[in-house]
């Protein structure tokens, strides 16, 4: 399932003068999508943590493609690219380096 929800008006609670937590509303929608095997486009606001991001998207296939096309170590992971605005450049680089070291360790392991 693919969803592309746009909100173009104030939510009911805001119109009634009530408290409305937009981040919580997005988290609830993302949880519902994960439970129902859906996903949302990543140009939109996302509250997904890394674990839930990879529950929504196929991490195994993504990592296979990154290795196949030489993206590991050259391009940052799509998760960090999506969340870059919420992380410092140093945090993104450290996470990518850790990911690269893991990928290199896997390559160094003899195959069964």
Automatic annotation (TrEMBL):
PANTHER family reported for this sequence: 24-DEHYDROCHOLESTEROL REDUCTASE, DELTA(24)-STEROL REDUCTASE
Cite the entry's keywords alphabetically: Oxidoreductase
| Stretches for region Disordered | 93-112
Per UniProt, the ranges with Acidic residues bias are 103-112
Q: What is this protein called?
A: Delta(24)-sterol reductase
Q: Which organism is it from?
A: Morella rubra
State the source organism's domain of life.
Answer: Eukaryota
GO terms of molecular function: oxidoreductase activity, acting on the CH-CH group of donors, NAD or NADP as acceptor
């Amino acid at each position: 399932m693919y969803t592309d929800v746009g909100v173009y008006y104030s939510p009911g609670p805001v119109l009634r003068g009530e408290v409305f937590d937009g981040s919580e509303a997005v988290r609830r929608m993302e949880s519902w999508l994960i439970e129902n095997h859906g996903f949302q486009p990543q140009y939109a606001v996302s509250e997904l943590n890394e674990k839930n991001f990879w529950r929504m998207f196929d991490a195994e296939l993504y990592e296979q493609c990154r290795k196949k096309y030489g993206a590991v170590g050259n391009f940052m992971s799509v998760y960090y690219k999506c969340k870059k605005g919420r992380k410092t450049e140093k945090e993104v680089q450290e996470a990518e380096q850790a990911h690269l070291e893991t990928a290199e360790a896997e390559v160094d392991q003899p195959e069964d």
